[in-house]
Specification:
heterodimer, A: about 240 residues, Rossmann fold, about 25% strand, B: about 280 residues, mainly alpha, ABC transporter involved in vitamin B12 uptake, BtuC, about 0% strand
């Protein structure tokens, strides 16, 4: 799977990122093709979250260009955000949240159509949370909550997912389950972009790696090439020493 | 008991009592609908801030001596609501500081203007009325009632039309924006509806107690119910029942309308807290 190139879906050329006129990362170049599993690695403050916002179109790049192609438009990226404080005590049923993934399809229509509800039900079935559909979101375990948000992301877009630190705060068992789930979705043909600082998981699951250092891109290419290049060595050692 | 019925019968033969009841129930319904969203978005205090702006605007309107203060109060409050809800996202002054600043600022300027340009001889009476609502709800004229009904219909219709969008924006604004929906438009809708409700509610409970009308029903419902829809429905029912019983009690016992309604809301909140303890123990 790795190294294989499908149709390009997202091309970033000479991207410069930042906010309030201050650049946090420059010269970012990478291409995401259909069926790729790209992991974006980088330390805190390296501009990962700014890159996410830029890819999603929530922020304009300072320089360079993001091209959408291969049937992908702006808004066709299913987004799995990190949990916010607001969501932790939010009274909402699982179904209400998954349905809200169809919000863009509604346009000005004030309610969800049958097709949209069917899509949401299908995604809940796919991720094994159908029995939870009437449960309250805030009473679920961390792993279950992530599945709910993933189902919502899949309702919004079925071709490409952007996952922001999807295993943060989960216990080891739930982390492994989450990675396996993402891998399964990727094998079914969904393009995955995952932001992470988990070196081991990234090199184990991803087909491509984009490593952002302080202010600039350190590596982009296949995972094999990344392991050979030695760019990740220092990062991996630090991760190991930090985690015990 | 019979005595109470007779008293009520007497009161309800006057149209102004009916007006008060209609206006009170509509305002309670509208404020509870938006209350859930505002509490969840961490904007509980926006009601307080905006009502003080409305107080200041009322003082300004008093200077110009307009026949209907709402021509000045509504636009000023709506503009402030938009500014306040915008600053929540990215601004040099953060949300709660901005609310505090505008809130006390408007209160001070409003009181200053009221004293400098008194519209009647009884300044402290005027101030008290604006702050606590007092009896002005019992002196509503027919065109006030019509205005209130029209505004309430607009608020309720907007809420129903945008219900799913309001839910999505409240739960996760970034996700909504990422999927290509203009979330700012819906934030704007929320801001405008909030401002309209606050101007309406000024008559009922006055500007100091408006927050109570917005947050108490929502907080009560959130104790017990666990889906967004059920929370909204429960909070609407709680709010309407509390407003209704508050108005009846204040008629019968001569207490101020606004604070009686808020007292009823507090009582229901305590009851719901106790219920939630039992539910949790069971689960």
């Amino acid at each position: 799977m790795s190294g294989q190139r499908g149709t390009p879906q997202l091309i970033c050329e000479d991207l410069s990122l930042g906010y309030d006129g201050e650049t946090v990362a420059e010269n970012i170049n990478f291409t995401v093709c259909e069926g790729n599993y790209l992991c974006i690695l980088g330390e805190n403050g390296s501009g990962k979250s700014t890159l996410i916002k830029t890819l999603l179109g929530l922020k304009k790049p300072i320089g360079g260009e993001i091209k959408h192609c291969g049937g992908i438009k702006q808004g066709d990226i299913g987004y799995l955000p990190q949990q916010t404080a607001v969501q932790k005590d939010f009274p909402a049923s699982v179904r209400e949240i998954v349905y809200s993934g169809c919000i863009a399809k509604c346009g000005l229509r004030p309610f969800y159509s049958k097709a949209e509800k069917a899509l949401a039900d299908e995604m809940m079935g796919k991720l094994g949370i159908t029995e939870l559909s009437r449960r309250c979101y805030r009473e679920l375990s961390g792993g279950q909550q992530q599945r709910v948000l993933l189902a919502r992301a899949l309702c919004a877009a079925q071709k490409m997912l952007l996952l922001d630190e999807p295993v943060t705060g989960l216990d080891p068992k739930a982390q492994a389950d989450m990675y396996e789930l993402i891998s399964t979705l990727n094998n079914e043909g969904i393009t995955v972009i995952m932001v992470s600082h988990d070196f081991a998981a990234a090199t184990h699951y991803a087909s491509h790696i984009l490593h952002i250092g302080a202010h600039t891109q350190l590596y982009y290419g296949t995972t094999e090439g990344y392991l050979e290049s030695g760019v990740g060595t220092a990062f991996a050692e630090r991760a190991v020493s930090e985690n015990g | 008991m019979a005595e109470i019925f007779q008293k009520l019968q007497l009161y309800f033969s006057y149209p102004f009592v009916w007006y008060a009841l209609i206006v009170g129930l509509l305002i309670a319904l509208c404020s509870s609908l938006l209350g859930v969203t505002l509490v969840l978005k961490r904007f509980s205090y926006i009601g307080d801030g905006l009502s003080h702006v409305a107080f200041g605007a009322m003082a300004v309107a008093g200077i110009f001596g307009l026949t209907n203060n709402n021509y000045i109060v509504i636009p000023m409050t709506v503009i402030s609501a938009i500014l306040l809800l915008r600053t929540g996202q990215n601004a040099k002054i953060n949300g709660d500081a901005a609310i505090a600043m505008i809130s006390v600022g408007a209160l001070a300027i409003g009181y200053l203007l009221m004293n400098k340009f008194p519209s009647s001889a009884n300044i402290s009476g005027d101030v008290c009325t604006t702050l606590f609502g007092s009896t002005s709800i019992l002196t509503l004229r027919q065109d006030d009632v019509i205005l209130c009904v029209v505004m309430s219909v607009i608020v309720i219709a907007a809420f129903l039309l945008f219900y799913h969008k309001i839910f999505a924006v409240t739960f996760d604004e970034n996700f909504v924006r990422a999927s290509g929906v203009r979330a700012n438009v819906y934030n704007l809708v929320i801001a405008i509806i909030t401002a309209l409700i606050i101007v309406l509610a000024m008559n009922l409970v006055g500007s100091l107690l408006i927050s109570a009308l917005i947050i108490f029903p929502a907080l009560s419902a959130m104790r017990v119910f666990r889906s967004f829809k059920s929370v909204i429905i429960c909070s609407a029912i709680v709010s309407v029942v509390c407003a209704g019983s508050g108005i009846f009690i204040s008629i019968l016992s001569g207490t101020p309308v606004g604070s009686t309604i808020v007292a009823a809301d507090i009582a229901v909140f305590l009851i719901f807290c106790i219920i939630s303890l039992f539910i949790r123990r069971k689960a």
